[in-house]
Amino acid sequence: MQTLEALARDARALANGEVVLSAPETEVARQMQICNACRYCEGFCAVFPAMTRRLAFGQADIHFLANLCHNCGACLHACQYAPPHEFAVNVPQAMAQVRGQTYADYAWPPALGRLYQRQGLTLSLALAAGLALFLVLAVVLQGQGLGALWSAPGSDFYGLFPHNLLVGLFAPVFGFATLALGLGVRRFWREITPATSGAPLSAPATAEATGAVLRLKYLDGGHGDGCHNEDDAHTLARRRYHHLTFYGFLLCFAATSVGTLYHYLLGLPAPYDLPSLPKLLGAVGGLSLAIGTAGLWRLNLRRHPLHGDAAQKPMDRGFIALLFLTATSGLALWAARGTPALALTLCLHLGAVMALFATMPYGKFGHGIFRTAALLRHAVEKRQPNPIGLGAD
């Protein structure tokens, strides 16, 4: 009977043009009402000061708060109303469920977002393997036999795949990923801006949000000792592994960008040797990325069952696996130069990189972009007068 009543209520709301909240969104709204009355966790992260500026929680508010949450777990372990209390307040899990929903809701095209959300790990590894196999077949056909895989030129990447061919393969994939992610974030930004005062960005707000992103400020548990993983003990492990992963990826991307400048502006084609800048950036970035993703994988396996959304683990692990495979295959490619293993290693590395870029808009890479947008809007909103005149920022 309650289900029929809920369906009838939703049907009336849709008929009147009202926004109908999903079950995870409704749960976040319920928990935020309880938290707004308690406010014990107000100093833990950005979510709770932002919460105190609201008496009601519409869909845009919920999406904003969900992406502002860093899922550190501190509020769950401090909450007197957490399970098994009858209020069953579990903010990290409720926010994670909505956050996962937003990845699919804002994805472009939507069907790819839903597919990756359900089968992230399988899709990531299958795509990387399929692309690598395609490149292997290209080498075999070009060399007229399987022996080409183990007797190709020892150090010449472009002897296997001409530079223009690689550009033709990767440029459309990268362009599509950038377009899809940009369209999704633009829609998210347009939705949450009116819900976060509507004021434009300012230099101080941008600087504050940038600092929070670069330092991963809200993975410190609100007190600097770190958040939680599998138990009640504080740990900075997640923050450190995230830093290694984040900056490792940026260094690898910088290596590719500098290599592009070397090729087109200086006429210096790859491969490069130490102590060239592309090689230094790539080596440090690859090692950092490999260590960071290995640590995040270990923490993901050991995470407290009440943290996050178990349904998103395939998506989380798919992204971690692709990053790890990209880093380790890149390092292996360096070691394989001058050996017959170059062709096979290059195919594996290129397949992993292409799969990573193809899936970027639909998984955990997007969470960093959406979270940055939420932090920017929070930094803007907190500088405006409190609309309800209660609480403190």
UniProtKB/TrEMBL annotation:
Transmembrane segments: 121-141, 161-183, 244-265, 277-297, 318-336, 342-362
Cleavable signal peptide: none
UniProt-listed SUPFAM superfamilies: alpha-helical ferredoxin, Respiratory nitrate reductase 1 gamma chain
Keyword tags: Membrane, Transmembrane, Transmembrane helix
Domain of life, source organism: Bacteria
NCBIfam families, A to Z: CitB (TIGR02484), PRK15033.1 (NF011607)
Protein name as annotated: Tricarballylate utilization protein B
Organism: Hydrogenophaga pseudoflava (Pseudomonas carboxydoflava)
